[in-house]
Amino acid sequence: MSLKKFKEILKNLNYSNSFKPTETSRILINGVTKELNKLNNFHGKKFLDLGCGSGILTILLNNNYPNNHFFASDLDDGAVLDSNLNFKNFKIKAKAIKSNIFDRWEEKFDFIIDDISGVSSLLISETNWFDNSIPSEDEDGTFLLNNMLKQAKYYLNPNGIIFFPILSVSNHNKAIKKAKENFKISLIEKSYWPIPDSLKNKRTILETLKKKKIIDFEEKFGSIFFWTCVYMGYSK
Predict the structure, then answer these.
(1) Do 139 and 212 form a contact (C-beta atoms < 8 A)?
(2) 87 contacts 58 by C-beta, under 8 angstroms
(3) Which residues pair with 220 in a beta bridge?
(4) SS3 of 80, please?
(5) 183 neighbors 149 (Cβ within 8 angstroms)
(6) Is the confidence at residue 50, as pLDDT, over 60?
(7) 114-142 burial, b for 16+ CB within 10 Å, e for fewer?
(8) Stretch (H or E) spanning 28
(9) Is the pLDDT of residue 49 over 90?
């Protein structure tokens, strides 16, 4: 999915009560659409947008793959409010509900798109990225992802697929190891992004966390770059 299309949707999107969609969301939807486009024409499939935020993933998926069924959830009340408002404004037949991962879901889905990104708690403590409404993460940033993946296999239909991002602001290698305990996975997208302003004066801390293999980054053109990897998983 092009950056231009993402920005077009973003321009008319309400996120006053939730997070502004990030580059991770765009990278995720780009990888998801590339893989879905490889499938034969399909309809009547059930999609779950997990950690829906403002609902941008559901809106873009609905635009690209109409005649399917779309569901969304988030733990944050503001995100649920914004998603449902955006679904109405974009004329999307979907409803977001409040749910802690799968707590409120009883049905199974053909596609689960997870946009819950793990971030090391040691890094979170140095930023103002999240408020108290976000569930606590562990030091290596893999707890939420691992918890989600352990449950997800019970909410996928036979031959169902899950898509999820792993960011280098968490322990990528540990996250991959955990993911492989639950799914057969393949890397479908990788993109680099520059260090946020809130971390530019935290080089010593970042280098310490990298040395401990809690996070990772690359230095290019005199600056630090993190990355986002998007994976596709099938049930074993």
Answers:
(1) no
(2) yes
(3) 223
(4) helix
(5) yes
(6) yes
(7) bbbbbbbbbbbeeeeeeeeeeeebbebbb
(8) helix 23-36
(9) yes
Q: What is the DSSP string of 106-161?
A: -S-EEEEEE------HHHHTTS-S--TTSPP--TTS-HHHHHHHHHHGGGEEEEEE
- Domains detected in the chain: 3-235 (3.40.50.150)
The pLDDT tens digits for 101-133 are: 999 999 999 999 999 878 888 777 777 665 545
Q: What mean pLDDT is reported for the chain?
A: 90
Token pair of 194 as six digits:
């520059």
Q: Side-chain half-sphere of 136: how many Cα atoms within 13 Å?
A: 4
Amino acid at 14: N
DSSP secondary structure code for residue 197 in this structure? G
Rounded Cα distance between 169 and 231, Å, is 16
- To 10 degrees, the CA torsion angle through 205, 211, 213, 214? -10
| Both tokens assigned to 67 | 């005649």
Residue 94 bridge partners (DSSP): 70
Q: Are strands 46-50 and 69-74 parallel, antiparallel or unpaired?
A: parallel
Give strand pairing partners of 109: 156
Residues 190, 230: contact at Cβ < 8 Å?
yes
Q: Phi then psi for 60, rounded to 5 degrees?
A: -70, -40
| Encoded amino acid at 212, one letter | K
- CB atoms under 10 Å from CB of 57, counted, come to 27
Structure tokens at 126: 């140095």
Round to the nearest angstrom and report the end-to-end CA distance of the chain: 29
